[in-house]
Amino acid sequence: MKKFFVILLCAVFCLSLAACAQNTEETVRQPERKEAAENTKPSQDAAAPTPAPTPTPMPVLKSGMQNEAVRQLQQRLGELGYLDIEEYTEKFGPATERAVRLFQRQNGLSEDGIAGEETLARIYADDAKECALPLAGIRIGLDPGHQKQGNSEQEAAAPGSAVTKNKVTSGTAGKNTGTPEYQVNLAVALKLRALLEENGAEVVMTHETADVDISNQERARIMNDAGVDLALRLHCDGVDDASVRGAMMLVPAGEYTKEIETQSRAAGEEIFAAYLEATDARGRGVIARDDQTGFNWSTVPVCNIEMGCLSNGEEEALLISEEYQEKCAQGLLTGILRCFE
User: Fold this and answer.
1) Does residue 293 form part of some domain?
2) For residues 237 and 310, is the Cβ–Cβ distance under 8 A?
3) Burial 187-206 (b: 16+ CB within 10 A, else e)
4) Which top class of enzyme applies to this chain (predicted)?
5) pLDDT, tens digit (0-9, with 9 covering 90-100), for 276-313
6) Within 10 A of 117 (CB to CB), how many other CB atoms are there?
7) Mean pLDDT of 203-220
8) pTM of the model
9) 87 in the same domain as 184
């Protein structure tokens, strides 16, 4: 019996030892599981992925705007040779618009003078095309029609002709404002000269002020002596019917102008088409004339644009406005450029 109790006590002691060992193992395992669980939790300190920035669209720069982007545009156009001004400003004016147009023309873009996304991308590209002046080596003659005071003295209308005409007249005047034609003609001619020179042309003008006395014969001789590649005479029309409006192009014809007729007409048609596109003026046609002193004495290709009717009140308002005169000059420039492509 005593032996039985000894065996029983040994068994109880062994079971107690086993239970303690199991509890100890479980205690050790719990921290391990806790640590593993903590390691599988997402880190609170890990940075969240940064979203991709939304691309900022390029600005559209156009006439009348004023900001730093315009100054940067001017500087870039200057670097490429499209803009030559004394100081870069923040104002998008006529010179900047002309430079943008020139860039667009030389780079096969739509020519609107507005620096939109496509134009700006090309301007700022590393391989942007530098300016190649399209009229370099070309000599253009401009004769703004009429002058402040007419001269009724007579001169031969053509070489060897017995027919005579007034040396020069003062032209027509605006229906409502009385603005003299010579003022409009000269204003557009001076604007056109600036455009031509920006495109590399050498420009010969019969006069730069209205206070002159130069006959139509003399005007033709100025162009002949200068050897211009093309002479353009600038006029406005005046008709008895005040409802008539629109532009027309006069080109030489007849026995005195046979050698220059073909070239003159081709140039006249090209310039007239571009002029109508730029101004939206009504076209009254390309008309051949054999009675103009300025044509008959010319030995170089010549044409005469009648920019519109000052005798029509609505068209007069356009012709005397700065904005429309800019359009006239731009259209004439575009036509001349096409002539020498």
Assistant:
1) yes
2) yes
3) bbbbbbbebbebbebbbbbb
4) hydrolase
5) 999 999 999 999 999 999 999 999 999 999 999 999 99
6) 11
7) 98
8) 0.74
9) no
The residues, ordered by sequence, that sit 6+ positions from 183 with a Cβ below 8 Å of its Cβ are 210, 320
- The CA-atom distances, in angstroms, between 330 and each of 18, 279, 336 are 106, 9, 10
Q: Identify which of 193, 169, 194 has the alpha carbon closest to the alpha carbon of residue 181.
A: 169
Name the packing angle between helices 181-198 and 94-106 (round to 10°). 50
Identify the residue whose tokens are 């039985």: 4
Instruction: Fill in the amino acid letter for 202.
Output: E
pLDDT 10s digits, 249-265 = 999 999 999 999 999 99
* Angle between helix 322-339 and helix 181-198 axes, rounded to 10 deg: 50
Residue 72 lies in a domain: yes
Same-domain check for residues 314 and 166: yes
H or E element in which residue 79 lies: helix 68-80
Give the integer Cα–Cα distance in Å for 1 and 323: 132
Q: Is residue 88 part of a domain?
A: yes
